[in-house]
Amino acid sequence: MYRKHADLIILALVLAAVFSLMWLLNGPHFFQADNFQSMAFQLPELGILSLAMMVTMLTGGINLSIIASANLTGIVVAMILTGLVTPDMSAAATGLIVLLAISAGLAVAALVGLLNGFLIARVEVSPILATLGTMILLNGLAIVLTRGYVISGFPPALLFIGNGLVLGIPMPMIIFLLCAGLMALILNRTPLGLSIYMIGSNPTACLFAGVDNARVLMRTYLISGLYAGVAALIMIARFNSAKADYGASYLLMTVLASVLGGTSAAGGFGKVSGLVLALAILQVVSSGLNLLQVSAFMTIAIWGAILILVMVVGHLSARFQEKKQLAA
Amino acid sequence: MKRVLARHEAYVFLAIVLFSAIITAFNPSFLTLENLFDLLKGYAFLGILATGVLLVLISGGIDISFTAVATVAAYVMATTIVRHPDSTNIVIAFLLAGLTGVALGMVNAAIIYFFEIPSIITTIATLNIYYGILTVISGGKWLYALPPWFRAFADIKVFTLTNAEGIKYGLSVVTVIWLAVVVVAWVILRYTLLGRGIYAMGGNLASARRAGFNIFRLQMFVYSFMGLMAGIAGVIEVLLAQRMAPNSMVGKELDVIAAVVLGGASLTGGVGTLSGTLLGVALLAVMSNGLTLMRVPSFWYNVFIGLIIIISVSVSAYRRRARQKRMIAVEAA
Question: Which residues of A touch B302 (CB under 8 A)?
Fold first, then answer.
């Protein structure tokens, strides 16, 4: 039991520890509904982007272009909305245009995913280089489309995605839970998921086991692109605007969250449940420190320290297990 | 000829020549010494960081934290010289920043070596730690009141020439520092056991250890050297801008890595040359300067850089595969 879920147990303990600490430091108002609600509004953006990062890391890759593709998606959606929606339009017509804009945005996200997949799976460029190139290219396209300006002012139907409540639960949280559930389903219950883990563990063995590696990688980066697109919808709805350089600091944070959640940088290992726990830890720390009026920069420093601490504990416990095995 | 063309550097060089020809056709002021000297000054920051990144990549690791290290080093240097303008000088400024960089690099190396945490993870974490703490301590405030000798040093030119309009221009001391750094790195990589060790470690860590290389010392050296480069680059940034801005460097990590990778260094370690890295920096410089001189609006810049990187890495991936196929064919025959 302990051996199999060691990583998750460590994460759960860390979560309990930071939660108790923040509760202790902040007093009762940390443990109130509105605090949980605001956490549930903040976590999903980084959460869905982290899922987009994690699935590529499972194959031993990385996707540096997720933020750039999210921004490009957001800008396409924003341009369609601001271009076509007029204030005197009927609700039905507006709704239709919102749907059209979202589909167009997700189509862009899918195209970006396929471009990454093509470069990595067919041209066999290493993922970090391919996505570094597409990151800069997509950011460039986003700047060209917007001339560097902000596009803002969306219809309420779109804003609901980022700010609405359903039965008291924030809409972004519902979307995140759906995304996480779907990802868990893909990874654990489909042949594609199995192949993703196998490629990450050993691509040669995977190929000889009869898996079409290129096809699996194509789909992995397609999924990653689509998730970045979904994150984009929440992002622009929450800000009520789109811009070429939103969320730039999220990029390294998604790697941090994935690794904190037990995803191996070398590929092959990592679970959605671990990532969700990691995101909860990061969110509790950030909300708790925010209530204490600690600078947001201190928060990212502490996030970095938590990552190293968890990695060190993981390393030491693995070494301890090894020694015990040798002794036995 | 065949051997020259087999090298990645040859293609980068051809690309630079091609772009230069196109740019000169549009705007002859590109191909002047004055413009060249400007580029050699403006790209010293990127070039010095790229030299450090090259060594880390050759050793089989990666460093993301160097922009934060450069920021911290520059801040330590700037606050000290602002507080004690009379008792400090430019040598002390470089020493302070360099030592700060080395210390932070050693922290990275220690975490990577002792806890066997992948270098990319370690340095993403330390980037956040160094930058976060620095921003809290500095309050994000910019420092302008730099001593007069600091400004004077930035204006030193090794030799000066006069252009047709009678304006003086020359080779900046900043460029000389960049060149010195490159020469030191070249000697280390090419003529020392240390350099052999760095290549060996990146090629195959286990073999390097068996061959008797002290991996701990090699890693300490590589990440300290990266830290030293970050420290020097941090001072250069403040020299050129004549202000210390805590937020001016972080975020440029991937640009620097892109330059090194354009120059043919491999992210799996063991491969990479200084000439390639210099060409990679040169390609980025020529592209960006050329777009400006050809009056292409600056918002197109990233589209071109992105395309260049995608094409470059695709071509080298294609050539690597073709080579592998040839080798398999030879073995089969």
Answer: 136-137, 139-140, 143
On whether any CB of chain A is under 8 Å from the CB of B310, the answer is yes
Q: Are A116 and A130 in contact (CB under 8 A)?
A: yes
Which positions 102-121 of A are in contact with B (Cβ < 8 Å)?
119
What single letter denotes the amino acid at residue B252? K
Nearest to A143 among B299, B310, B320 (CB): B299
Q: How many helices (H) and strands (E) does chain A have?
A: 13, 4
What is the Cα–Cα distance from A197 to A77, expressed in whole angstroms? 33
CA angle B263, B266, B269 (to 5 degrees): 135
Q: What residue type is A27 in one-letter code? A: G
Pairing of strands A241-242, A151-152: antiparallel
Instruction: With beta carbons under 8 A apart, name residues in chain B contacting A133.
Output: 258, 306-307, 309-310, 313
Q: What CATH number does the domain containing A198 carry? A: 1.10.3470
The answer to whether B291 touches A140, Cβ cutoff 8 Å, is: no
pTM of the full predicted structure? 0.87
Q: Is residue A253 part of a domain?
A: yes
Overall domain count for chain A: 1
Q: Name chain A contacts of B205, Cβ cutoff 8 Å.
A: none
The minimum CA-CA distance between A182 and chain B, rounded to whole Å, is: 27
Portion 121-180 of B in contact with A at CB < 8 A: 121-122, 124-133, 135-136, 140
Sign of CA dihedral B1, B6, B10, B11: positive
Q: Tell me whether residue A1 is in a domain.
A: no
Per DSSP, the residues of A42-84 read: HHHHHHHHHHHHHHHHHTT---TTHHHHHHHHHHHHHHHHHHH
Does a structural domain hold residue A63? yes
Q: Which domain holds residue A119?
A: 6-327
3-state secondary structure of B229: helix
Q: Among partner residues A129, A133, A265, which is closest to B118 by beta-carbon distance?
A: A265
Is residue A191 domain-resident? yes
B328/chain A closest Cα distance in angstroms: 16
**Among A129, A141, A311, beta carbon nearest to B267:** A129
- Interface mutation target, options B256, B267, B302, chain A, most CBs of A under 10 Å: B302
Contacting A residues, span 253-282, partner chain B, CB-CB under 8 Å: 255-256, 259, 265-266
Query: pLDDT tens track of chain B, all 333 residues?
Result: 455 556 778 888 888 888 888 888 888 888 888 888 888 888 999 999 999 999 999 999 999 999 999 999 999 999 999 998 888 889 999 999 999 999 999 999 999 999 888 898 899 899 999 999 999 998 888 988 888 888 888 888 877 777 777 777 888 889 999 999 999 999 999 999 999 999 999 888 888 888 889 999 999 999 999 999 999 999 999 999 888 888 888 888 888 988 898 888 777 778 888 988 999 999 888 888 888 888 888 788 888 888 888 888 888 888 878 878 887 777 776
The verdict on A292 touching B (C-beta cutoff 8 Å) is no
Rg for chain A, CA atoms, rounded: 21
Could A297 and B135 be called an inter-chain contact, meaning their C-beta atoms sit closer than 8 Å?
yes
Q: Which residue segments constitute the domains of chain B, with CATH numbers given? A: 31-287 (1.10.3470)
- Distance from the Cα of B297 to chain A's closest Cα (Å) equals 9
Chain B: give the shortest CA distance to residue A85, in Å: 27
Query: A78-84 long-range CB contacts below 8 Å, 24 or more apart?
Result: A78/A151, A78/A152, A78/A154, A78/A236, A78/A241, A78/A242, A79/A145, A79/A151, A80/A104, A80/A105, A81/A154, A81/A155, A81/A158, A82/A151, A82/A152, A82/A153, A82/A154
